[in-house]
Amino acid sequence: MALKKTVKQMVAEATARIRTIPIDEAQTLLDDPDTLFVDIRDVRELEREGMIPGAFHAPRGMLEFWVDPESPYHKPVFASGKSFVLYCGGAWRSALAADTLQQMGLEPVAHLEGGFSGWKAAGAPVVPRPAKG
What we know:
By secondary structure, the chain is of the alpha/beta class. The protein has a single domain (about 10-120), classed as 3-Layer(aba) Sandwich (Oxidized Rhodanese, domain 1). About 35% of the residues lie in helices and about 15% in strands. It has helices spanning about 5-15, 25-30, 45-50, 65, 95-105, 115-120; strands at about 20, 35-40, 55, 85, 110. Helix 1 packs across helix 5. It is globular and about 40 Å long. It starts with 6 loop residues before the first helix and ends in a 12-residue tail after the last helix.
Protein backbone atom coordinates (compact mmCIF):
# COMPACT_ATOMS: atom_id res chain seq x y z
CA MET A 1 0.00 0.00 0.00
CA ALA A 2 1.35 3.38 -0.98
CA LEU A 3 0.70 6.14 1.52
CA LYS A 4 -0.29 9.62 0.41
CA LYS A 5 2.16 11.08 2.93
CA THR A 6 4.85 9.57 5.07
CA VAL A 7 5.36 10.42 8.72
CA LYS A 8 8.60 12.09 7.72
CA GLN A 9 6.73 14.35 5.30
CA MET A 10 4.08 15.16 7.88
CA VAL A 11 6.68 16.06 10.51
CA ALA A 12 8.57 18.24 8.02
CA GLU A 13 5.38 20.08 7.07
CA ALA A 14 4.39 20.56 10.70
CA THR A 15 7.88 21.79 11.62
CA ALA A 16 7.66 24.41 8.88
CA ARG A 17 4.48 25.80 10.47
CA ILE A 18 5.48 25.84 14.14
CA ARG A 19 8.12 27.37 16.37
CA THR A 20 10.97 25.10 17.40
CA ILE A 21 12.80 26.11 20.55
CA PRO A 22 16.50 25.18 20.76
CA ILE A 23 17.53 23.37 23.93
CA ASP A 24 19.77 26.19 25.16
CA GLU A 25 16.89 28.66 24.89
CA ALA A 26 14.49 26.18 26.48
CA GLN A 27 16.76 25.84 29.50
CA THR A 28 16.43 29.58 30.11
CA LEU A 29 12.63 29.13 30.23
CA LEU A 30 12.67 26.54 33.02
CA ASP A 31 12.09 29.14 35.73
CA ASP A 32 9.73 31.30 33.67
CA PRO A 33 6.33 31.25 35.42
CA ASP A 34 4.65 32.08 32.11
CA THR A 35 6.05 29.02 30.31
CA LEU A 36 4.85 25.46 30.79
CA PHE A 37 6.70 22.46 29.40
CA VAL A 38 4.26 19.76 28.32
CA ASP A 39 5.51 16.19 28.17
CA ILE A 40 3.38 14.24 25.68
CA ARG A 41 5.22 10.94 26.00
CA ASP A 42 3.68 7.71 27.19
CA VAL A 43 3.69 7.25 30.96
CA ARG A 44 6.10 4.31 30.58
CA GLU A 45 8.64 6.64 28.99
CA LEU A 46 8.35 9.04 31.93
CA GLU A 47 8.79 6.23 34.43
CA ARG A 48 11.82 4.88 32.58
CA GLU A 49 13.60 8.14 31.71
CA GLY A 50 12.26 10.91 33.93
CA MET A 51 11.10 14.29 32.69
CA ILE A 52 11.94 17.98 32.51
CA PRO A 53 11.57 19.64 35.94
CA GLY A 54 8.14 21.23 36.37
CA ALA A 55 6.73 19.71 33.18
CA PHE A 56 3.04 18.87 32.92
CA HIS A 57 2.27 15.41 31.59
CA ALA A 58 -0.40 15.34 28.89
CA PRO A 59 -0.41 12.00 27.05
CA ARG A 60 -0.43 12.46 23.28
CA GLY A 61 -3.66 10.50 22.94
CA MET A 62 -5.58 12.93 25.19
CA LEU A 63 -3.89 16.21 24.29
CA GLU A 64 -6.52 17.72 21.98
CA PHE A 65 -9.30 16.69 24.37
CA TRP A 66 -7.51 18.31 27.32
CA VAL A 67 -6.91 21.54 25.37
CA ASP A 68 -10.47 21.98 24.02
CA PRO A 69 -12.55 23.94 26.57
CA GLU A 70 -15.71 22.36 25.13
CA SER A 71 -14.44 18.83 25.77
CA PRO A 72 -15.60 16.99 28.89
CA TYR A 73 -11.90 16.17 29.42
CA HIS A 74 -10.66 19.79 29.35
CA LYS A 75 -7.80 20.65 31.71
CA PRO A 76 -7.82 24.29 32.92
CA VAL A 77 -4.02 24.48 32.68
CA PHE A 78 -4.45 24.85 28.91
CA ALA A 79 -6.61 27.96 29.42
CA SER A 80 -4.00 29.57 31.69
CA GLY A 81 -2.58 31.98 29.11
CA LYS A 82 0.90 30.50 29.47
CA SER A 83 3.30 29.71 26.64
CA PHE A 84 3.48 25.98 25.99
CA VAL A 85 6.59 24.05 24.97
CA LEU A 86 5.71 20.51 23.96
CA TYR A 87 8.21 17.68 23.91
CA CYS A 88 8.33 13.97 23.23
CA GLY A 89 11.20 11.53 22.86
CA GLY A 90 12.66 12.66 19.55
CA ALA A 91 10.65 15.75 18.48
CA TRP A 92 8.40 14.01 15.96
CA ARG A 93 5.26 13.57 18.04
CA SER A 94 5.70 17.03 19.55
CA ALA A 95 6.00 18.64 16.10
CA LEU A 96 2.74 17.04 14.98
CA ALA A 97 1.06 17.87 18.30
CA ALA A 98 2.21 21.51 18.33
CA ASP A 99 0.94 21.92 14.78
CA THR A 100 -2.43 20.46 15.73
CA LEU A 101 -2.77 22.64 18.83
CA GLN A 102 -1.79 25.71 16.83
CA GLN A 103 -4.54 24.83 14.32
CA MET A 104 -6.96 24.55 17.25
CA GLY A 105 -6.00 28.09 18.28
CA LEU A 106 -3.82 27.44 21.31
CA GLU A 107 -1.16 30.15 21.40
CA PRO A 108 1.66 30.46 21.93
CA VAL A 109 2.72 26.86 21.43
CA ALA A 110 6.09 25.51 20.30
CA HIS A 111 8.08 22.32 20.56
CA LEU A 112 11.51 21.38 21.86
CA GLU A 113 14.23 20.81 19.29
CA GLY A 114 15.60 17.28 19.61
CA GLY A 115 12.93 16.27 22.13
CA PHE A 116 13.73 14.70 25.47
CA SER A 117 16.60 12.74 23.93
CA GLY A 118 18.27 15.99 22.90
CA TRP A 119 17.55 17.53 26.29
CA LYS A 120 19.26 14.65 28.10
CA ALA A 121 22.19 14.61 25.66
CA ALA A 122 22.75 18.32 26.38
CA GLY A 123 23.05 17.55 30.09
CA ALA A 124 19.94 19.56 30.91
CA PRO A 125 18.17 18.76 34.20
CA VAL A 126 15.96 15.69 34.49
CA VAL A 127 13.79 14.65 37.42
CA PRO A 128 11.90 11.45 38.16
CA ARG A 129 8.22 11.32 37.27
CA PRO A 130 6.28 12.63 40.30
CA ALA A 131 4.42 9.94 42.21
CA LYS A 132 0.68 9.93 41.73
CA GLY A 133 -1.27 10.04 44.91
